[in-house]
Write a structure and sequence with these properties.
Shape: globular
Distance between the termini: 27 Å
CATH superfamily: Glycosidases
Structural class: alpha/beta
CATH class: Alpha Beta
Radius of gyration: 16 Å
Helix content: 10-25%
């Protein structure tokens, strides 16, 4: 199976409590969804369970990511990420959204390494989301990159060595707001869902309207485009 397009979402794609119509997203040709799970040591996305369930019900592969804050204990952040995904199958795996902004590189790199090591104890092979500048800094510091999800809005096509390329932002039918669009180089050997699409059940009830201020660091922080 060759290249597949996908989107990444958070509570920002649910303005005023609007749900995403994942069946429409699938009809637009998208094959996977990356859903924000958590941020820092206290925030969990109130739409996490529903978006994962509804995206998979529409036939999409799913993954989840944690927005890593620099300062709060990275081990505790890893525990939160793992806890809010307990028992959840992630076809695309778990990811660390790494865009620390203007901080000491060594501090950021240490936080990243600690977080990923802690996540790997439960969910091995935690992937890395970052931009070109941080990718260069990590490689120069000999920090392991592993599975790479690269934000590079200036490129015309994905570069060698990255599993997922975030190519930019677009309006996608079924999503209430503009959303980041990504390309997965190959989903071969991933755990493809085999169940036929089904309608959401009562288990995926509409959550309360998100408190967007809990995520302000997610949307405003960092040095470039990010999962939102």
């Amino acid at each position: 199976m060759g290249q597949v397009k996908g989107i990444d979402v958070s509570s920002w794609q649910h303005p005023y409590g609007e749900p995403i119509d994942w069946e429409e997203v699938a009809k637009e040709g998208f094959g996977f969804a990356m859903v924000k799970a958590s941020q820092g040591t206290t925030y969990t996305n109130p739409w996490l369970a529903r978006d994962l369930d509804d995206a998979r019900a529409a036939g999409l592969l799913v993954g989840a990511y944690h927005y890593l804050e620099i300062g709060p204990d990275p081990g505790e952040q890893a525990n939160l990420f793992v806890a809010c995904l307990m028992g959840v199958v992630l076809d695309m795996g778990g990811w660390c959204d790494f865009e620390p902004g203007a901080v000491q590189p060594a501090m950021a790199q240490n936080a990243l390494s600690t977080f990923r090591l802690a996540v790997d104890n439960t969910r091995p092979n935690c992937g890395l989301y970052c931009d070109l500048a941080w990718l260069k800094a990590l490689k120069e510091a000999y920090v392991s990159v592993g599975r790479l999800w690269l934000a590079d809005w200036t490129a015309a096509e994905p570069k060698e060595g990255q599993l997922i390329w975030q190519e930019g932002q677009a309006t996608v039918k079924g999503v209430p707001t503009p959303v980041d669009v990504n390309v997965c180089g190959s989903v071969r050997a991933l755990n493809l869902p085999t169940a036929p699409p089904v309608k959401p059940t009562a288990a995926t009830v509409r959550p309360a309207r998100p408190v967007l201020t809990d995520e302000q660091g997610d949307e405003a922080g960092g040095t470039g485009p990010e999962p939102s």
